[in-house]
Amino acid sequence: MSILSYALISYINLSNNDEIDMLQNDNTENYSIEVRNLTKKFGDFTAVDNISFSVKRGETFAFLGPNGAGKTTTIKMLTTLLHPTTGTMLVNGYDPIKNQDAVRRSFGIVFQDQSLDEELTAYENMEFHGVLYKVPDKILRKKIEELLNFVELWDRKNDLVKHFSGGMKRRLEIARGLLHTPELLFMDEPTIGLDPQTRNHIWKYLKDLNGTAGITVFFTTHYMDEAERVADRVAIIDHGRIVAEGRPEELKNKTGAKTLEEAFLSLTGKQIREEEAGSIDQMRMNRKMWSK
Amino acid sequence: MIRTVYILWLRQLKRYVRSRSRIIGSLGQPLLFLVALGYGFGPIFQKAGQGNYLEFLAPGVIAMSILFTAIFSGIEIIWDKQFGFLKETLVAPVSRLNIMIGRTLGGATVATIQGIIVFFISLAAGFRPTNITLLPIAFLIMALTALLFTAMGTALASLLEDMQGFQMVMNFLVMPIFFLSGALFPLEGLPRSIFIAASLNPLSYGVDGLRGALVGQVHFGFITDFAVLSVITALFLVVGSYLFSKIEI
Ligand SMILES: Nc1ncnc2c1ncn2[C@@H]1O[C@H](COP(=O)(O)OP(=O)(O)O)[C@@H](O)[C@H]1O
Ligand SMILES: [Mg+2]
């Protein structure tokens, strides 16, 4: 616990004198994310359908919805990976279409699918990230040590990531996402497939960060109890449309539900959404065949 | 910018050095070609009055291993695309051009190293270069050939969605490039259609330059070889950068 608070305190100190300096736009000072009438079409299919919402600075915001609702697509647009079909966005005051690099510097992200280089060590993955984000050398080494301690991976720093468990990889991705001191952290299903212990750990880190360093956290999850516990506000998206938005309490009151899960089900229906059998699994098999 | 390119280059090299099974596997094939073809066709080649076949073949086999390794390095982008690591680089505040350059230089370095290793293997198999002083030229041609085909692999990988596409590329592009390059047979006295195909094939110029530098036999001439390799490399770098910058995931 003392290591943890140490890491947090240093995190804040480093944030203050970090050379990657964020120029803030006055009008949007209070909002970390502002989305207006955002739409994304893939051919004829509308994955995200005219959504609007905003996330205040320092807020923990849960973006909830069944499989295929459009959560990941929305995150990809906010993080400059996809161009929207129509609509406007501001991330930390910058436009992800016109001002890509400013937006990119201002957020960290944990992707839905794992995005580490498995042939590199934990330390090398961190170093790679630090160099891409131009974290100055002196600060970089110190920060890597602090963050790896923070997620309790420092003594595994020289192990290849391919030998890590799912939970360790997730923790490493969170540490990596924080390395360049972002104001905002996106996490797309950060706890999927993890055991309750690891999930608890991860939320503890994030609550700590959010509380002490004031980082805005935007996350998606299928675990409604998690969202209810950690989120200040939630938005529920279904078939590309936002069907409800507010504090968990508000949503429960509105639907007369006892838990957020009940509220979620009453808003999105009980029909099961099939996720397309991922080509990812198939690729994993191919990769095994090819790399040996 | 330099650091970005450097870290991407370094990543390619680390991945190469760590995949020991891949290195060993990819050296078996050239060895087989040298031994089976070199010694198998040797007597016929000699009887046809063409001299020592191993001497003729070794530069071709070196070029082959560079071709395969380089295309493979470029195509690795498909993996990074599917397995998410590419996203990590694409959300970073660096230009796509720098990412592409770093990766391509890394892949080309790996392919050049692979070519040099095969050069030493061919020495072990009995190959002797005729003029040691031209070795630096040989290495330069190897590096240029490596760069050309890594850039081509990058361009292809930017267009392809998954590894099924890669199979097609291997069968309908890389294999023809190899077999129609003069790596295995002399370009003199060929049927016209085969000769035209070989002349349009960039690998032919890599093989020719390499054979010129190692055993003093040139068909097109050094100047032509260098000019063609350089121009095509530049072209693929431009096309590859453009296609890479268009990747959406
Ligand atoms: N590149 C793409 N091309 C076509 N359809 C896509 C693409 N990406 C996502 N989709 C579709 O858009 C919908 C929303 O996907 P996604 O945002 O991943 O959902 P979620 O993250 O909420 O599960 C799904 O129906 C998915 O199949
Ligand atoms: Mg998703």
What fraction strand of chain B?
Answer: under 5%
Strand arrangement, largest sheet of chain A? Answer: 5-6-7-3-8-9
Shape of chain B: globular
Which structural class should the secondary elements of chain B be placed in? mainly alpha
Report the C-alpha radius of gyration of chain A, rounded: 19 Å
Number of continuous helical runs of chain A: 11
**Helix residue percentage of chain A:** 40-55%
Written account of the structure:
The complex is a heterodimer of chains A (292) and B (249). Chain A contains 11 helices and 9 strands. Chain A is globular, with a radius of gyration of 19 Å. Chain A is of the alpha/beta class and 292 residues long. Chain B has 249 residues and is mainly α. Chain B has one domain. In chain B, 80% of the residues lie in helices and 0% in strands. Chain B has helices spanning 2-18, 20-47, 53-82, 85-90, 96-124, 135-159, 163-179, 192-199, 202-215, 222-245. In chain B, helix 5 crosses helix 6 (135-159) and helix 6 (135-159) packs parallel to helix 10 (222-245). The mean pLDDT of chain B is 92. At the A-B interface, helix 3, helix 4 and helix 11 of A face helix 1 and helix 4 of B. Residues 42, 45, 47, 65, 67-73, 276 of chain A line the site of adenosine-5'-diphosphate.
List the topology elements.
The complex is a heterodimer of chains A (292) and B (249).
Chain A: H1 2-17, E1 31-42, E2 45-56, E3 60-64, H2 71-78, E4 86-91, H3 100-106, E5 107-110, H4 122-132, H5 137-150, H6 166-178, E6 184-188, H7 196-212, E7 216-220, H8 224-230, E8 233-238, E9 241-246, H9 248-255, H10 260-268, H11 279-291
Helix pairs in contact in A: 1-5, 4-5, 4-6, 5-6, 9-10
Chain B: H1 2-18, H2 20-47, H3 53-82, H4 85-90, H5 96-124, H6 135-159, H7 163-179, H8 192-199, H9 202-215, H10 222-245
Helix pairs in contact in B: 1-5, 2-3, 2-5, 3-5, 3-6, 3-7, 3-9, 5-6, 5-10, 6-9, 6-10, 9-10
The complex binds adenosine-5'-diphosphate and magnesium ion.
